[in-house]
Specification:
Shape: globular
Strand order of the largest sheet: 1-2-4-3
Radius of gyration: 16 Å
InterPro entries: DUF1415
Organism: Pseudaquabacterium pictum
Number of strands: 4
Number of helices: 6
Structural class: alpha+beta
Strand content: 5-15%
Helix content: 40-55%
Number of domains: 1
Protein name: Peptidase
Pfam family, one: DUF1415
Order of helices and strands: HHEHEHEEHH
């Protein structure tokens, strides 16, 4: 992966956060850290799960050691590995085990985003899956304290999922495809890295 590839992956992911996560209000808590520059975007060049796990450990430790007013959350983007959603989904269990092994349970958690994300009980083409569909496979490292504070500020947090489903149904498949294209356009001319099948 060239530096230009990495730059494009970062730009497209930032555009997705701005246009989808914040723009569609899929996460009411995302805007503040993004505006304050407290979101760390990291592109992993890992091409196998072991190398990705090493990057994950590095980023978990970095986030745990950082002060929240300097670094709130991390997006670990890995476009060259776990491009198949089933493989990625299996890896999320490894990520959770790693949080425990680092003695960070109750401190950090890992949320999952993937271009092929599919909730249990949905069809592949169900537009509601798009709430968790990022441009590239991404592990989102989150502080538990941040979640607690957000829930205090947004007492109906359990309703976010239902609101997001309704938002996606209103947007529809064509609207989602247009939004994805906008994110690619925001990232500039396409020299996107080839992702393995």
């Amino acid at each position: 992966m060239t530096p230009d590839d990495q730059t494009r992956v970062l730009a497209e992911t930032r555009a997705w956060v701005d246009r989808a996560v914040i723009g569609l209000n899929l996460c009411p808590f995302a805007k503040a850290p993004q505006v304050k520059g407290l979101v760390r975007y990291v592109v992993s060049t890992a091409t196998d799960p072991a190398a990705l796990l090493a990057d994950l450990i590095t980023e978990l430790e970095r986030l745990a050691e950082a002060k929240p007013d300097k670094l709130e959350t991390t997006l670990l983007i890995h476009p060259l590995v776990l491009t198949d959603f089933a493989d990625y989904n299996d890896f999320t269990a490894v990520a959770e085990d790693t949080v425990a092994e680092l003695d960070l349970e109750g401190v950090l958690q890992v949320a999952s985003f993937h271009p092929q994300y599919q909730f249990d009980g949905t069809e592949v083409d169900d537009v509601t899956n798009a709430t968790n569909r990022s441009p590239y496979p991404t592990l989102h490292l989150i502080r538990e304290d941040s979640i607690d504070k957000a829930v205090e500020a947004f007492p109906e947090a359990e309703q976010i999922y239902e609101v997001n489903m309704a938002t996606m149904e209103r947007l529809g498949s064509a609207g989602w495809a247009a939004l994805q294209q906008q994110c690619r356009d925001d990232a500039g001319p396409s020299n996107a890295p080839e992702t393995p099948a």
